[in-house]
Design a protein that fits this description.
Residues 82-277 form the Helicase ATP-binding domain. By secondary structure, this protein is an alpha/beta fold. The protein contains 30 helices and 25 strands.
Length: 779
Amino acid sequence: MALRDRFRRLVQKPGSIDIAPFRAVAEEAGRREERVRALTDAELTAAASAPDLPADLAEFCAIGREAARRVIGERPFDVQLAGTLALLSGHVAEMATGEGKTLAGALAAAGYALRGERVHVMSVNDYLARRDADWMGPLYALLGVSVASIGQASTPDERRAAYRADVVYAPVSEIGFDLLRDRLVTDPADAVQREATVALIDEADSVLVDEAMVPLVLAGAADLDPADPRYADLVRRLRPGLHYGTDEEARNVQLTAAGAREVERVLGLDLYAPENLASLTAVNVALHAEVLLHRDVDYIVRDGAVKLISGSRGRVALLQRWPDGLQAAVEAKEELAASPSGEILDSITVQELIGRYPVRCGMTGTAMAVAGQLTEFYSLQIAVVPPNRPCVRDDQPDRLYATTADKDVAVVEEIAAAHAAGRPVLVGTGDVAESERLARRLVRAGVEPVVLNAKNDAEEAAIIAEAGAPGAVTVSTQMAGRGTDIRLGGGPGAPVPGTAPADQDGSLHDEVAAAGGLLVIGTGRYHSSRLDDQLRGRAGRQGDPGGSVFFTSLQDDLVTRYAPDETYKGPTGDEGRVEDKGAHWIVGHAQRVAEGVDLELHRNTWRYNQLIGLQRREVLAERDAVLTGDAADRAMAADAAAKHAELVKTAGADAVADAARQIVLYQLDRCWAEHLAFLTDLREGIHLRSLGRGLDPLVEFNREAVPAGKRLLGDARRRSAAAFEDLTATEDGGIDLDAAGLQRPSATWTYLVHDNPFGSLDERALRGLISMFKGRRKP
């Protein structure tokens, strides 16, 4: 091995790859640029369709660069082409904010399409999917590649047409929901999706890590009662400390003996009697909703409905809901009408959805922090692409304060000083309530901020576009996945790297640059260092000046939740400032504990879902054989031979085959829905059953889930035969399917199940992790 290669391996970050080969290809593309520029549009399109182009990456880059220059007005930098090549090689490209990930991703998607692959470009919301497809549309057209987009409002016909395109932009949730709906069709013509081989994921770390284990759910109408409002009224009157207590992480709440007596007095029953289990469950769920879920922190109320807030993005989590019992309890707490609930017909996690694609790649500004997880769960490596211009952002050390009150005063003073100097400020807060409290304090200090949070996320693009204007102060809950660049000087426009500032002569840009550029302020560390880095990355784009600083306190929620046993008794300076290194270590330690707990929860949930995924694939293989072939007809001819022969004589072979298909599909779907419900109950109870016996919950889960899964197909076939025996021929020679009891849900809908905030079954099993991580004290 050459000395240079050994040195590279020594200094290269684990999980990353060497991008030198990509940069060499980009340089070769530059040498071909003059020749390609002389081509007409028709010649350029023809060159993009040449059969040997996919093998000549330098030629593809030269053609793609010229196409972008002509129709988008952007000539991709060499580093953008390096990012494109990383994506085309099946890696995650880490590119800083403002470096042109959207264009790099479009070129990569076009490259895959020109190889004959069908590509799904997955974004985090409708707006970005539609914007990027429209923005990059002319580029795809010039390269001879078709493109479309899908959003929540897309009709089945629109979805079906969009999936025929070479490249489809869509939110990851919509692609998952379409897959779930297609899994339940009874006629192949009703399916909307076409199989794709490439998943190209924007905000890859957010999708692949933060949302990896979020279940996407297809539900069907069922007769489920909403939460009884009397339980919400009851727990609202209970007193903390006397009637209930919470654990030290404030993730669980339980009745005290006095609380149980008070509940029994009000309800007039023995709360712990076996026949009152439903009441006990209802009280506990109502208590969790009342004590642990906070309006404007965990959710907002908009248009008469509870809207969950995404913890990783600080905005409304569209279509997300908690498990039905908790969702109904929160609605009762807020005195709102109950939202629809029903039986889960099928579900899939984001991680399982992404795993279906043979080729996976993605782009983000903060991938290296989760390189290990991307490798462990997806076999992905990171290509760290340097910025086109060196980053000169001034990242200051954290400013730590003893109390939250001291920190709040310092934050306002810092913002006011920057505002007075004409410097734009972007402030990242932890939740909606904090953003609004800070805004009120700024107004009292004579500063008029613009607030961007889950209550006004529809206006986010316009707000962010003006965040770089002289003296602008923007308070935001989280900047992850906002998808809009902040330019010095402000002004609307597509977030394209390298364009002129919104003010044509650049005077406002120069004015803001002279003031120091955009100042990013964090009002506390997030639970993940990646979110800190995403906030920082909003400043210093494309070599612009800028700065960042985080204000933290020893009373921040991160510290009190994840490092409650760490105390600081050292000196405190003027205005509550703490300079001690040990105190700063406590904040970093709390963040590392939070990251460690999140990783273990991910691993544990993944282990459970592996088995479920294997069982679902077996059922789907059987279902596909029934849907597209004669498997059902052959099965019924064998299992109900006399009835099959009788019906063939009266109704004909085709009608019997169709009836058999409908019956077997229905029974397969029913058995799977029941199996999902069984697995859910099993997982909920397995930890309690194994807790006192020192058993491994996962082993115990598999011990019961595996045999149940093996029985599923047999049960479906037996039910199908029994239903087939009940069929009768009609007077006109048809078959009466109503006799088979094929009653599918009258309505279906899709949603994402938000993590149970007071402790999912996995989190309850892993509560000891926090204690374990707490024990890792500094040397």
